[in-house]
Write a structure and sequence with these properties.
The complex is a heterodimer of chains A (489) and B (112). Chain A contains 20 helices and 2 strands. With 489 residues, chain A is mainly α. In chain A, helix 2 packs antiparallel against helix 3, helix 14 runs antiparallel to helix 17 and helix 14 runs antiparallel to helix 19. With 112 residues, chain B is mainly alpha-helical. Chain B is 70% helix and 0% strand. Chain B has 3 helices and no strands. Chain B is elongated, with a radius of gyration of 19 Å. Chain B has a single domain, classed as Helix Hairpins, CATH 1.10.287.3510. Classes of the chains: A mainly alpha (489), B mainly alpha (112). Chains A and B meet through helix 6, helix 7 and helix 10 of A and helix 1, helix 2 and helix 3 of B.
């Protein structure tokens, strides 16, 4: 492995880190005149180009003595994360232009996404932990960046729960290291595959700890306490970044660790962690959907809805344990469609609440008459989150549930039954919101202008939601190729 | 005459589990944000103790392993914990300036 090849592999993350430094420098030298948003987009573009070159070269494999691994899986997440961040930056540029700490906002965003790219590449417990913490620390500060009382409260709460989760995760890592004698994921996988029956209990203990730590990132019950508070208190652009990117990174780690690292589908403990994720999925769906029913603040609704969606994705993780071949690609496909859908919803909410100065659902009454485009895109995204055709959310749910049923395991079939019931519950609050926007009479006739950047992102999101709803094949194939990279050759 | 006591892996694991438990209870029960941070710090140090104990003793039951990576892991955990404490204390100071309290029960604007 030459240094040049290693540079090719870690290029995207390095480009993002350098971008963060340049943004900070520009902010320091030029102050508020600096085009920090544009610089961040350039850094993201460089990272994406680099990833394309890497994909084109077909180069894959472990680098830096196995600390990282570059494969289709990490590339899938690189593209997903970079696209998400670019959409957040473009869609909320008007908000950012009024933020005092604009340079810091963009720099932290880049550090966070750069670390997530490394996270998707991590192949060793140490790199995994450091990347996870770097992205978390940047997100804690982002949640508090508005420096008003609500924002700093969100930041502090997010930080305290996040730090506890990280410590719990580490305790699990310590025992994995202790038993396997190595921190490299392939070494741990090898160990788990041949682990004697006597180690079953310690193994279960350590993966419960690990699942608790990562469950925080994925926002699944019972590690969800921070979600509604942070979504409500943090600035909406930060919320949109957290809801998509942070969740994607969490599931990237879960797939890498449990599918690849904990020895794949046929080990002592596979069924145990499958059932663990099944229970967590049920709890997340029920809690998220029932919690969302009683909310009147739209950001809190989106917070609870993101908990419920994490439950849907966890169905795919549980299916992985039952040797489902579509489980992992289902998770990836769902994350891709969820990114387009949830970004659309969040950017629309951001654009509206900027003008209204309110997050109350009552103020969304008659939005269709005041801002037709925003209302239509938001409705489309909500329909997709419910999982109705012809949207991408429908295909994603069918794909992931179908994969779970095909395994023929009774507990997975029961899980899907619960998930379908939950889809019905979720339809209630998603569609109630749509009805409020389209059918109700507005309390105020003034039109709501949506800024250009937000319009572009909303348009892209709705195209994505409809395109993958009608013709999902390209994304499904990409997800399948990415998932195949996880299996030991 | 007390027989010479030899300290084994189990001793370290029990002590670190106790410390981890104490840290968890503090982190979850204290209402003062700074006290919660102290609890988290205890949890992290319990992890460090576990890692070092495994690192020291693991050659006995995991031949061919890389016991040194446990030491390396601890160095990284220490670094990250320091960064985390810096951010956490800055955040606590920010909250205190706005409300004159770091009591988590009284920091409750966000609910519903």
């Amino acid at each position: 492995m030459t240094a040049l090849a290693a540079a090719l592999y870690i290029g995207p993350a390095v480009a993002l880190y350098i971008g963060a430094g340049v943004v900070l420098l520009a902010d320091l030298v030029q102050g508020r005149r600096a085009a920090t948003g544009l610089l961040s987009l350039v850094a993201l573009a460089v990272a994406a180009l680099w990833a394309i070159v890497q994909m084109g070269s077909g180069a894959e494999g472990p680098i830096l003595h196995g600390a990282l691994v570059a494969d289709r899986f990490s590339l899938f997440f690189t593209f997903l994360l970079v696209a998400t961040t670019a959409a957040v930056i473009v869609g909320t540029s008007e908000w950012a232009s009024r933020v005092e700490d604009r340079g810091e906002f963009y720099a932290l965003l880049l550090v966070s996404v750069g670390s997530m790219v490394l996270l998707a590449q991590s192949n060793d417990l140490i790199t995994l932990f450091v990347a996870l913490e770097t992205t978390s620390l940047a997100q804690f500060i982002l949640a508090g960046i508005a420096r008003n009382e609500r924002s700093s409260e969100a930041g502090l709460k997010y930080l305290l729960t996040g730090s506890i989760a990280a410590a719990v995760l580490l305790y699990g890592f310590a025992f994995l290291f202790g038993m396997a004698g190595t921190t490299a994921l392939p070494g741990i996988a090898e160990f788990v595959r041949h682990a004697p029956e006597g180690l079953r209990l310690p193994l279960i203990m350590s993966f419960v700890f690990v699942a608790a730590g990562i469950g925080f990132k994925m926002a699944i019950v019972p590690f969800h306490g921070w979600v509604p508070d942070v979504y409500q208190g943090a600035p909406t652009p930060v919320g949109s970044f957290l809801s998509v990117a942070s969740k994607a990174a969490g599931f990237a780690v879960v797939l890498r660790l449990f599918y690849s690292g904990l020895g794949g589908a046929e080990t002592l403990i596979t069924e145990d962690w499958g059932k663990l994720f099944a229970v967590l999925a049920v709890a997340s769906m029920l809690f998220g959907n029932i919690g969302a029913l009683v909310q009147t603040n739209v950001k809190r609704i989106l917070g609870y809805s993101s908990i419920a969606q994490a439950g849907n994705i966890a169905v795919g993780v549980a299916a992985v344990a039952a040797a489902s071949t579509v489980g992992p690609s289902g998770v990836l496909f769902f994350l891709g469609t969820y990114a387009a859908t949830n970004l659309g919803a969040f950017i629309a909410v951001n654009a509206v609440s900027e003008r209204l100065g309110s997050d109350d659902i009552a103020d969304y009454a008659g939005l269709f008459k005041r801002s037709p485009m925003t209302a239509v895109v938001l409705s489309l995204c909500l329909v997709s989150l419910t999982g109705l055709p012809p949207t991408a959310g429908f295909i994603a749910k069918v794909y992931i549930f179908n994969g779970a049923i095909q395994t023929g395991q009774w507990w997975l079939v029961a899980l899907v039954a619960v998930a379908v019931v939950n889809t019905a519950i979720s339809a209630f609050y998603y569609l109630r919101w749509v009805r409020t926007m389209i059918l109700d009479e507005p309390t105020d006739d003034r039109t709501i202008e949506t800024p250009g950047g937000a319009q572009a992102v909303l348009l892209l999101a709705s195209v994505g939601v409809l395109f993958f709803g009608v013709w999902p094949t390209p994304l499904i194939e990409a997800a399948q190729r990415a998932a195949a990279a996880l299996l030991p050759a | 005459m007390i027989p010479a006591l030899s300290v084994t892996l189990a001793h370290y694991l029990v002590v670190s589990a106790l410390i981890f438990g104490i840290g968890t209870v503090i982190a979850l029960s204290k209402r003062n944000a700074v006290a919660v941070l102290m609890g988290i710090e205890l949890m992290l140090n319990a992890v460090n103790l576990t890692l070092l104990a495994f690192s020291r003793f693991s050659s006995a039951f995991a031949p061919g392993g890389e016991p040194l990576s446990g030491h390396v892991f601890v160095v990284f955990v220490l670094t990250v914990a320091a960064a985390e404490a810096a951010v956490a204390l800055a955040m606590a100071v920010l909250v205190y300036r706005q409300r004159e309290t770091v009591d988590l029960d009284r920091i409750n604007l966000l609910r519903g």
